[in-house]
Amino acid sequence: MSALLELRNVNKDYRIGGFFDSSTLHAVKNVSFTLDDSKPEIFTIVGESGSGKTTTARMILGNETPTSGSLRFMGQSITAIRSRAGKLKFMSKAQPIFQNPFEAFNPLSTIDYFLFSTARRFLGLRDKAAIDAATDKALHHVGLSLAEVRGRYSHELSGGQLQRIAVARALIPEPKLIVADEPVSMVDASLRMSIVNLFRDLRDRLGVSIIYITHDLSTAYYISDRVIIMYKGDVVESGVAQEVLGNPQHAYSKALSQAVLPPDPEAARKIIMAKIA
Amino acid sequence: MDGFAKYLGRRLFQFFLVIFLGVSLAFLITNLSPVDPVEQSVALMTNFGATDPRSVELMRQALQELYGLQGSMLDQYLAFWGRVIRGDFGPSLSAFPTPVMSLIMSALPWTIGLLTLSLVITWTLGNLLGALAGYYRSNLLLKLSGAAVMALHPVPAYIIGLCLLLAFGFIWPILPISGGAQMNLQPGLTLDYLRSLIVHGTLPALTLVLVGLGSWFISMRSLVSNIVTDDHVVYAELGGVSSNKIFSQYVARNALLPQLTGLALSLGNVFGGAVITEFLFNYPGVGRLMIQGIYRGDYALVLGVTTISIIAVAVAVFIIDLIYPLIDPRVRLS
Where does the record place a coiled coil (chain A) (predicted)? Predict the structure, then answer.
């Protein structure tokens, strides 16, 4: 077995405050985990706002440099990637999906332009028909087609559609890893499951590993293979999703799982009334 | 095309509504002012000795007709609209009997030339510097120029103007400090005249640029720093899109949209003149004309300048509404 992604003792500090009264904020403390190359999985990072999960994601994508520790992707250090060619090569294997689908595409050009340029950039395609075919194939993976998207602007599509197109864009280079930072938090609740199911589908059919970052325990429980729970920069718990979320040990993860209301409305009402009283 | 016709119709309606309300308000305010142009004229003319009361009464009637002040307020209002459409605001009081319209027409070219040119310079420079400062946050040179622009921003026009006037008019007297061109030169397309125009316009234009730079700079910088954190920019950065392309295609292009609206509004405001700067440098533009009108109680002149600048702003907004769909696809269909 070889490692697809390996984080070892990763730390990230920020200096906050003014010139005279600055202090250090430890956004991420000693995070280590490894994703296996041969066994694609959905690896979930759970945590509240400010827990360091987005910073971790940005470091994996090479957008932030860690203060200390190492991040290796397919054996190569992510922080050592400097050149344009190196960036392209890395990104053709590791793709991001963002939280806000309405911000994911530059609103001034049609979306197909960005899909086409992704195909040109990462696959090195020059032929118009081949670019169309690669784009169409990726869109089919998310239940759309090029015919539906061609010539449309981002404001003409719904959030759910845009998020699926963002997934399709990530699929065009045929990546090994997708880093999805809160991909469903701004999507309508009724469409959330379609995106989450899509991730499972990608893992099973295309063999893509997914780092799924969320604060939503129910989808995390539903979909994850493994999970880590972060709290104020620390990993407070990690392991197989069902075990960690089914039987939380740390005080914070207990509080988290207690905050999830049971699906039965009567039981939920009882809990709420007890909290109010 | 149907959608565009609808859009055009709505904008056109808005255009006329704005002009109607603005001009009506200008009429109302000048009408409520205690200055009575007729009595002022009569007073001016009877200053030099006793005049027969009957001829004074006749004079009063003739003047009322000239200024459109006959009948009830409503009659006057309707007659005023008729005159606005004909472009006739009556004779000026302070420069009797020159028509207001010809006073304005001789001042407009000066104002338009000076203000348009300095606005274009200010807008381009402010947006460019602001966008660069918002995008390259750690660049020392941009930080310094940002600090300089911010320090200039709250200084009022009369201070900056006076400083320039002292610096280049007295301490190091290389530039003329008054007027629009050299008095004894024949206006025309001669090299001497053009040179004189430029030399005379430099200080007022510099004042306007220094005064206006800050607000464009600050707004552009904050617009850019918002867009830089947008996901599509982050994606482009991750994908190794060159920073020049990110700057021009992703960041600056998105941030420029609201600035274009601002530019059009400011272009409309050009017709009102730059009151303080023109007055300070004795520049023969609309702003100085307006101040003269106010000081001398020249009711017709003030109303004329106000009306023209209202119409100009409305036209500018209408034009930007028409070209906006070409630049922003989001306006095209919604």
Answer: none
**C-alpha–C-alpha distance, residues B327 and B334, integer Å:** 14
- The terminus-to-terminus CA distance of chain B in angstroms comes to 13
Chain A residues with CB inside 8 Å of B240's CB?
A: 84-85, 87-88, 91, 121
No. of helices (H) and no. of strands (E), chain B: 15, 0
Could you tell me how far CA B163 lies from the centroid of its own chain? 23
A111-153 pLDDT tens trace:
999 899 889 888 888 889 999 999 999 999 888 899 989 999 8
In this structure, chain A runs to a length of 277
Instruction: Assign residue A168 the CATH number of its domain.
Output: 3.40.50.300
A216 contacts A184 by C-beta, under 8 angstroms: yes
Three-state secondary-structure class, residue A32: strand
Which of B237, B238, B329 minimises the CB distance to A108? Answer: B329
Q: Is the pLDDT of residue B332 over 70?
A: no
pLDDT in tens, B201-259: 999 999 999 999 999 999 999 999 989 888 888 888 887 788 888 898 889 888 988 89
**Which DSSP state fits B99?**
B
Kindly state the tokens that stand for A19. 């010139």
Give B100-310's CATH code, choosing from 3.10.580.10, 1.10.3720.10, 3.20.20.70, 1.25.40.10: 1.10.3720.10
Give the residue from chain B lying closest to A151, CA to CA: B329
For residue B250, how many other CB atoms are within 10 A of its CB? 23
Number of domains in chain A: 1
The CA distance from A148 to A93, in Å, is 27
Q: At what angle do helices B286-295 and B299-327 cross, to 10 degrees?
A: 150
**Domain with A39 in it:** 3-276
* Cβ-nearest to B250 among A88, A100, A106: A106
Nearest residue of chain A to residue B328 (CA atoms)? A108
C-alpha to C-alpha distance for A141 and B17, rounded to whole angstroms = 52
Place of tokens 């954190």: B229
Beta bridge partners of A43: A211, A226
The pTM of this model reads: 0.77
Q: Determine whether the interchain pair A106/B238 forms a contact, defined as Cβ–Cβ distance below 8 Å.
A: no
Are B239 and A91 inside 8 Å of each other by CB?
A: yes
Identity of the residue in B240, B249, B333 whose CB atom sits nearest the CB atom of A84: B240
Domain edges within chain B: 100-310
Chain A: residue whose CA lies nearest to B246: A106
A86 DSSP 8-state letter: H
Which chain B residue's Cα is nearest to A91? Answer: B239
Q: What is the pLDDT of residue A1?
A: 58
Per CB-CB distance under 8 Å, the chain B contacts of A61 are 238
- Counting DSSP H helices and E strands in chain A, the numbers are 11, 10
Q: Which residue has the tokens 């207001």?
A: B100
3-state secondary structure A212-226: EEECCHHHHHHHCCE
Residue B143 phi, psi (nearest 5): -60, -45
Q: How far is A84 from chain B (nearest CA, A)?
A: 5
Task: Supply the angle between the helices A159-171 and A128-141 in degrees, to the nearest 10.
Answer: 120
Q: Is the ipTM of this complex over 0.85?
A: no
Q: What DSSP designation does A78 have?
A: G
Distance from CA of A54 to the nearest CA of B (A): 13
Q: What whole-number distance in Å separates Cα of residue B215 and Cα of residue B193?
A: 34
